[in-house]
Specification:
Layout: E1 8-15, H1 19-30, E2 35-38, E3 55-56, H2 61-66, H3 72-83, H4 89-109, E4 114-116, E5 136-139, E6 142-143, H5 168-175, H6 183-186, H7 190-200, E7 204-205, H8 207-221, E8 226-227, E9 232-238, E10 241-249, E11 252-264, H9 273-280, H10 285-289, H11 303-310, E12 315-316, E13 321-327, E14 335-336, E15 346-349, H12 363-372, E16 378-382, H13 384-389, H14 402-406, E17 411-413, H15 416-423, H16 427-443, H17 455-460, E18 479-491, E19 494-495, E20 502-504, E21 510-516, H18 534-552
Parallel strand pairs: 1-2, 1-11, 2-8, 11-21
Antiparallel strand pairs: 3-5, 4-5, 6-7, 9-10, 10-11, 12-19, 13-14, 13-18, 15-16, 16-18, 17-18, 20-21
C-alpha cells in the first residue's frame, strides 16, 4: 500500500482549464470517471478564452453535412508533406483518425456546438492533401447567463472593435458585404443578438470565450469540481509511475490521488522570461524575452512542463512558438494582425524601407520571419484608402483616435518622406519600394512575393477590390505606419508524448499515469501550423485521446 497520506482521491486529475484541459475533463466524466480540475489562477479558460476559438479538424462532421469532400488520407498527406519527419507518423495518424471522432463525440455528449467556418482554406491549401475550405470550425454563440461562474471566465481587454459578438463567418461577411450584399441576409441573427446584448445584458459571447463557456457549462451540469486558485506544486511518483499531484489549495499544500492518471494541460511557458531566454536566447531583446508581445494567458509560465521535466519526462520543440504578428497599443494587450495583412493598400517593410515577405502569408510563418529579420523594426505602411475601409489594431474603419497619434501607436503624415522621418525608416528605400509596389498593384501581380495567389491570401483579401483582392496602391494621403512585433499565441514546445497522449522519457519509455495535451505538450504539428485552429484542434483531440486511454486503464 502507498505510504502517502492522500488528502483527496479521484480517478483523473486535469491540470489547466483551456480547451484541452476542459475537453479531457468532459470526456473523462462522460466515460464514468471521477474528475478534479485544477486552475492556478482566479479565472478559467487559459489562452483559449482569449482566442478566436477556431479548431482545425480535418474530415469533420460539419464538412460531411455540407457535402464538402475530405478524407483521412488527404489530411495525413497534407500534414506529412508540410511537417516532414519532425513528428512520428503514428502521432499524425492518431490525430487524423481521432479529430473528427472527437468533434462528433463532443457535439453528442456535451454542450459544445460548432459552426463551419465557410471557405476558410488551410494555410498551404495548394500543397498535396490541402483543402480550400471546411477543416476549420468554431463554436456557436452562447449566453454567459447560463453559467453560474461566468464572471470567472478569462476575458481579453482588447476585444473585437466595437465589442461585437459574432462567429468568424459572420464577421467576415459583415466586413465584406460590399462584395456580397446578400451576405447580410445570411448573418441576420448578428444584429438582434448584439442589440439584445446592449439593451438587456444577455451576455452573449462568441469565439474562444464561447468555446470555453460551452465546455465549462458541460462540467457545471455534471457537478465536476473545478478548483480555482489551486496551483500545481509537483507530481507525485510511486514506483516510477505518476499516482497523483501535490497542489496549493486555500494556502495549504494538499495531495490528490489520481487512480487513472493526470492530464497535464497547463499551457506553455510564454509568460516565463527565464524559460524564454533559456530556449530562445537573447535574440529577441529584453521586451520580447519578457513576454511583452505574447497573447498567451498570464498564467502560462511552464508549470506543467517543469513538473514533468523534474520527474524525467522528455521535452521537444522548445525553441518554437505559435507566432503571430502583433501591434502594441500603449497600456493594453497585443493586438494581433490576422486578416488585415491580406487587404489592399498596405505593405510591411523593414528599417530599410524594403518589403521582405508576402504580407498575407500565414501568420505563423510571417511572425517567425519578423523575429528572424535582421533589419528591424518592421512597420505596416498603409494609406487613407486602407484606413477608410478596414479595421486594424482595435480601430474601426475610418476612425483613428487622436490619442493613438499622440502616444505614437499610430504614425500619420501627409507624405511618405515625412512618414519615414517619424518612423526611422530609410526614406529613399521606402519611396522606391512604394513605387514598385504601386506598379505591381496596378497590374494585379506581386512579382516579388506572390501576394494574392494563394487561396489563403484571397480569403483575407477584399473580394470587391480588383484586379487582385490583396493588392492596392499605397498612394492616397495621409499615410500611416504602425510598428509590428514578432508576437505569439503561446509556445509550441513541451512534454514529449506518443500517439496515446502518454508522456515519454528520453529513452522512449512511458511515464505511467501521466498524459499531456495542448501547449503543455510538444505539438503534434511540429514546426508547422496547418490551418486556422491548428493549436486548439490538436489540443482538444489529444485531450480526448488521453481521457479515453485513461478510462480504459
Amino acid at each position: 500500500m502507498s505510504g502517502i497520506n492522500w488528502d483527496h482521491e479521484t480517478d483523473l486529475v486535469v491540470v489547466g482549464t483551456g480547451a484541452a484541459g476542459l475537453t479531457a475533463a468532459v470526456v473523462a466524466d462522460n466515460e464514468g470517471l471521477d474528475v478534479i480540475v485544477l486552475e492556478k489562477e482566479a479565472f478559467y479558460g487559459g489562452t483559449t478564452a482569449l482566442s478566436g476559438g477556431v479548431a482545425w479538424i480535418p474530415n469533420n462532421p460539419l464538412m460531411k453535412r455540407a457535402g464538402i469532400d475530405d478524407n483521412p488520407d488527404d489530411a495525413l498527406t497534407y500534414l506529412k508533406h508540410n511537417i516532414g519527419q519532425r513528428v512520428a507518423e503514428a502521432k499524425l495518424q492518431a490525430f487524423v483518425d481521432s479529430a473528427p471522432v472527437m468533434a462528433e463525440y463532443m457535439e453528442s455528449n456535451s454542450e459544445l456546438e460548432f459552426n463551419l467556418v465557410h471557405g476558410f482554406p488551410d494555410y498551404r491549401p495548394e500543397t498535396p492533401g490541402g483543402s480550400k475550405g471546411g477543416r476549420s470550425i468554431d463554436p456557436k454563440v452562447i449566453s454567459g447567463r447560463r453559467l453560474k461562474d461566468f464572471g470567472k471566465l478569462r476575458r481579453s481587454n482588447l476585444a473585437v472593435p466595437g465589442g461585437v459578438v459574432g462567429s468568424v463567418t459572420e464577421l467576415r461577411r459583415l466586413a465584406f458585404f460590399r462584395a456580397n450584399p446578400l451576405g447580410l441576409l445570411q448573418v441576420w441573427k448578428f444584429f438582434p443578438r448584439n442589440l439584445w446584448n446592449k439593451i438587456a445584458g444577455r451576455k452573449h459571447i462568441s469565439n474562444g470565450g464561447a468555446l470555453i463557456s460551452r465546455l465549462r457549462l458541460s462540467l457545471q451540469q455534471k457537478d465536476v469540481p473545478l478548483w480555482m486558485e489551486t496551483p500545481l506544486e509537483e507530481l507525485v511518483i510511486e514506483d516510477g509511475a505518476v499516482t497523483g499531484v501535490r497542489a496549493m489549495k486555500n494556502g495549504t499544500s494538499v495531495t490528490i490521488r489520481a487512480r487513472k492518471g493526470v492530464v497535464m494541460a497547463a499551457g506553455g511557458f510564454e509568460r516565463n522570461p527565464t524559460m524564454r531566454k533559456q530556449f530562445f536566447g537573447e535574440k529577441g531583446g529584453d521586451d520580447w524575452n519578457d513576454g511583452s508581445y505574447t497573447s498567451g494567458s498570464r498564467g502560462n509560465t511552464g508549470d506543467g512542463i517543469k513538473a514533468g521535466s523534474e520527474i524525467g519526462a522528455a521535452v521537444d520543440l522548445m525553441d518554437d512558438m505559435w507566432w503571430m504578428p502583433s501591434l502594441m497599443p500603449p497600456g493594453s494587450s497585443p493586438a494581433i494582425v490576422v486578416f488585415e495583412r491580406g487587404l489592399p493598400h498596405m505593405m510591411i517593410v523593414n528599417a530599410q524601407g524594403e518589403r521582405f515577405a508576402n504580407e498575407a502569408r500565414p501568420y505563423n510563418e510571417l511572425g517567425r520571419i519578423i523575429y528572424e529579420e535582421t533589419a528591424l523594426p518592421a512597420h505596416i505602411i498603409f494609406d487613407h484608402a486602407y484606413r477608410s475601409k478596414y479595421a486594424i489594431g482595435g480601430m474601426l474603419p475610418g476612425i483613428t483616435p487622436e490619442r493613438y497619434i499622440e502616444n505614437g501607436y499610430v504614425k500619420r503624415a501627409d507624405t511618405l518622406e515625412e512618414l519615414a522621418k517619424h518612423t526611422g525608416i530609410d526614406a529613399a528605400g521606402l519611396a522606391q519600394t512604394v513605387a514598385r509596389f504601386n506598379a505591381m498593384a496596378a497590374s494585379g501581380k506581386d512579382e516579388d512575393f506572390s501576394k494574392g495567389e494563394s487561396a489563403f491570401d484571397l480569403y483575407a483579401g477584399d473580394p470587391a477590390h480588383r484586379p487582385n483582392p490583396c493588392l492596392g496602391p499605397v498612394a492616397t494621403p495621409p499615410f500611416y505606419a504602425m510598428e509590428v512585433k514578432a508576437g505569439d499565441l503561446g509556445t509550441k514546445g513541451g512534454l514529449l508524448t506518443n500517439e496515446y497522449a502518454q508522456v515519454l522519457r528520453e529513452d522512449g519509455t512511458v511515464v505511467a499515469g501521466l498524459y499531456a495535451a495542448g501547449n503543455s505538450s510538444a505539438s503534434v504539428m511540429g514546426n508547422y501550423y496547418p490551418g486556422a485552429g491548428g493549436t486548439i484542434g490538436a489540443g482538444m483531440t489529444y485531450a480526448y485521446i488521453a481521457a479515453m486511454d485513461a478510462s480504459a486503464q
